[in-house]
Each structure stands twice: as structure tokens, then as C-alpha cells.
Amino acid sequence: MKTIALAWPILLLSNMLIAQEMDFGVCITDFQEQARKESISERVIVDVLGNLQPQNRVIELDKSQPEFVQTFAHYFNLRVSQSRIDKGRELYNQHREFLAALTDEYGVPGQYLIAFWGLETNFGGYLGTMPTLDSLATLACDPRRSAFFTSELMVALQLLERESLSPDEMEGSWAGAMGHTQFMPSSYWQYAVDGDGDGQINLWASEQDALASGANFLQDLGWNRNERWGREVKLPTDFSYLEAGLENTRSLDAWSAVGLLQTNGTTLPQAHMNGSVLVPAGHTGPAFLVYDNFSVIMKWNRSESYAIAVGRLADRIAGAGALFSTPPADQPALTRDHLTEMQQELIDRGYEPGEADGVMGPATRAALSAFQTDSDLIADGFPHLQSLRILSPDTEFDL
After folding, report:
1. Among residues 342, 379, 375, 312, which one has the least CA distance to residue 116?
2. What does the pLDDT read at residue 20?
3. Catalytic residue among 21, 90, 120, 396
4. Which of 38, 98, 116, 332 has a 20 to 30 Å separation from 238 between CA atoms?
5. Is position 341 annotated as part of the catalytic site?
6. What phi, psi does 178 have (nearest 5°)?
7. Which residues of 58-87 are buried (b: 16+ CB within 10 A; e: fewer)?
8. What does the pLDDT read at residue 101?
9. Which CATH architecture has domain 20-65+129-205?
10. Is residue 12 over pLDDT 60?
11. Rounded Cα distance, 204 and 180, in Å
12. Domain boundary assignment for the chain
């Protein structure tokens, strides 16, 4: 009886794997038909597409959500570390002439290109190990985002032919991002350029191809060659934190009138520019005044913390000093459940944070700010431990 009991789970798992392989085989047949419509060569359709294998790990990673939302201090310090600054400066000097030529052509200063490179792959230290074509085919076979990944797969196959690549060298992230700059196939196809002049665009093997492609991409996204990304600023003691956020944009003159200063205590530059104030760690951390190029960085990656890290790493590579205000290291690492509980508590107390979905959006910040005002706390709309302990006194938070 024990032998039979143990055999059933094994048989069930075996049947599930067979079913998955059969489903993947049906998908491959469909992809091959689509590839013929895209005029992809029969050799690639049969020898490459026909031999792709499902990657179960890709689906696991796609469906998983990180439990904890990183604190800004943890995120920032990990990415704008002294070792990364030192390596960025070394690579900037190594590629100085080439970067100057890219700046002349595309308008993007070289320190930003090096910073993106550092954030994406640690300057090529980790390009990813997942087989790109197999990963894309696996994701395209999943019905949740089949259309998007099928399109990316077709483009990846066209890249294989256009750039004389081999499937084995096409490795990257589980989601199909590739090379030193982690371009998706569609971005590779549209924006990648031959930076080293060898007649091939290879974002894995050529650092110059990757840097030039990044510059071309940023130019197309709208990079303004006459502006920086932003700067750290000092806020007045009576600053209304409800005025913070990308949705609140003012001219530099208007921000000066409010009392914003540069960190050395001088007034903001006299320039016809607009900006928004960001306080990613609340009133106890640094404040940033970000400009239009910050929004360009966010078109590359939609994370505000990512964009701040790129900007600050670029500044440090160019010789700037450390932040005036150190990101606080004692803030709690929150889960989505923590934030959902906080939102529900706000709702129960008569505030309006929007849906209790575990996401810190403008409505949640405004509701939390109103609660903080009523509780005689600094109303920065940030989930500080003091606010959380009042709202959820029975919940433990990891510091």
C-alpha cells in the first residue's frame, strides 16, 4: 500500500509535465505559422524555433511578487555604492573619448550612459543566464500576456538573422531583456546601433554598441541635452508635503518662492525649467527637485527610486559628493499586506486612501497626510513607523 501511495504523486506529476510539453508543442506550431507570416527564414523556423524548450522557472518568476517593499535607503545604498561609483569613474575614463562623441551626436552626457549600464547589469558583470528565445516562447505560451511576448519572440528571431547571432549567445533576464543595457527585442531592433563600427550590433559582446544604443534610445525618449536630471535640495521647515510628487510641477522660480534651496544654502538656479519635489524616504530623508529628464529616465524604468539612483550615480561618476541628507536606515521594510492593512485602517477611520491594494499612490499619501495632521505628526504622507504603530498597534514591523 505504501508503494502505491507514493506512486500516485509521481504519476500525477509526470502527467502534468507531459501535458505542459504538449501545450508548449502546440504553441510552437502556432509560433512557426506566425513566423512564416513574418518572412522569417525556414531554417530559423525549423532549426531554432522548432527546438525551443519550455522554461518552468520563467513562469514561476513571472507570477511571483516580492513580499517586501524595499526601503529607499536599502534600494539606494545597494545601487549607488562606493564600489559602483569607483567602477563607474574607471569606465567613464576608459571610454571618455567615445562617450564625448556620443554626447555630441545624441546629447546625452557620458556619465548617464555609464550609470544606466551600472544599474542594469553592474557594468556587464551580470547579463543574465536565461535562454532568451526559450524564455520568450514560454511567456508567449502563457495566455496572460501572450500577444506581447509573441511579438517580442518574433522580433528576437528576426534579430537572430539580422545580426548573425546564435541562440546560445542570446541569454538574458527571465523576461527576455538582453545585453549590457538589458534591451527587450523590440528596443534592440528599433534603437540598437553599431557603436564600434564592425557591421554588427551585438549588445552582449560590444560595450560600445551598448553605450551607443543607450544614447540613441534616450535621445528618442526625449532627453534634453541642456538639462540635468534633477538635484538634491533643502526644504523649508514649513514645507507642505502634499506639494511633493511628480504630479505637482512648478517652475524653478515658483519653487524658490516657496523656500527651496540648494544643499549649500544658495538659491536655485535662474532657469526657465519646471520641476517636481520628491521625498522618497519622507521628511527624515533627502529631498530632490527633479526635471524633465527625470521623466525620460522613468520611460526606461518606471520606478522613481531607479530614476533617482541613475541620476545620483551619474552625478557621483562626474565627481559630485555624497548626499547632503543620508537616507534613513531605520525605516520598516513593509509588505504589501502591511500597506493594505494601513489603507484599510485609514478607510475605517474616515479617510480616503482609495482602494486598499497595498500600493502607495497619491490618494493614499493624501489620506495618510490628513491622518498625520490630525495626529499632530509631520504630515509628509509617508508610512513612518510612528504612524504605522498608531494605525496598527498589534502589528510587528521589521526594521
Report:
1. 312
2. 55
3. 120
4. 332
5. no
6. -135, 150
7. bbeebeeeeeebebbbbbbeebbeeebbeb
8. 98
9. Orthogonal Bundle (1.10)
10. no
11. 6
12. 20-65+129-205, 334-391
